[in-house]
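Fold this sequence, please.
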Amino acid sequence: MGPAGSPLSPDDIEVVAPNFKRRLSGVTATIQRLVPLQARSLGIVALGPNLGARVPRIGCVTLLKLWRRPKKRPFRIWHARRNIEMLTGLVLRDLLRLPLRIVFTSASQRHHTAYTRALIARVDAVISTSRATATYLKRPSTVVMHGIDTELFHPAADPAEAWKAAGLPGSLGIGCFGRIRHQKGTDVFVDAMIRLLPRFPEATAVVLGRTTPPHQGFEADLHRRIADAGLADRILFPGEVDVDAIADWYRRLSLFVAPQRWEGFGLTPLEAMSSGVPVVATTVGAFPELVVPGVTGDLVPPGDVEAMVTAVEAILSDPARRRTMALAARDHIGQRFTLEREAAAVIAVYEGLWRSAERATVEAPRDPS
């Protein structure tokens, strides 16, 4: 039995999902969500620190035992999501000759460096997390959009009651979750709230997330603006909360805002909609592929405070429309963005590689001698 209670012997391991970053990141969160679900039908393990008790994983010592083919497959899959993980997979496959094929998931929406392009050119299959991401690649990819655990992120019976039970002021909660920094558009959200909250005395805004040292001056400036507007008791900064508590915060909201200036993918709109919360998001990252304007929320240009004010006001001022959007948002996630759907689509990429190898073996010409 391996670390974290993994029951897999080296011969039973079919897929390795490396995570070579200690701090919590989007990649870490993806592995924590997907791998336990995929492990129900596949011999998959993760490799790396801080993955949580639910994630089956191995250590480096076990990795060195993977020189033999797995029992059921012609080779193992090494599923990389960062450059360092691609490079490690290439070393294991090409230099150490481990029976591996490399899958890389790209979430970036920007032109890759020459180094990254060189790595991507040598992997065996590529997954893109959105159609927009796929356009930045120089080779074909399979689009597999992220999914959400709809059991964890579910609507509250009454968001206003959930808000009140948390001891928060007012009866309408407007949320903005994520790192507090210029790239994330936190200042745009704050400026929009400074303009809107005087028109909606029942509303309170929550900025939930962590501020790293390089961005503490940015946050301090936001607090000054809020204080000058006399809204320090209605634009709240609870700080960073435990991952397990995030779902409760979504359920308290009446509206979620994703004000990013740039984003690779961005899970927060999916988490909000799965929780039955309409979303106003900017037209960056995968957001235009996630939010249905006029149905599950609205889209606005990045950095445009006026457009954000207009969109948020239109939803807040119409409770019946807001309730309709909340139902449509939850239904939208259930139809297109479940975690099970994502896990199955990723496994289909693995299966495609295995089938291709098996066909090649069957079709290989025999030696006439």
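The chain has 14 helices and 13 strands. The chain has two domains: 3-147+339-363, 159-336.
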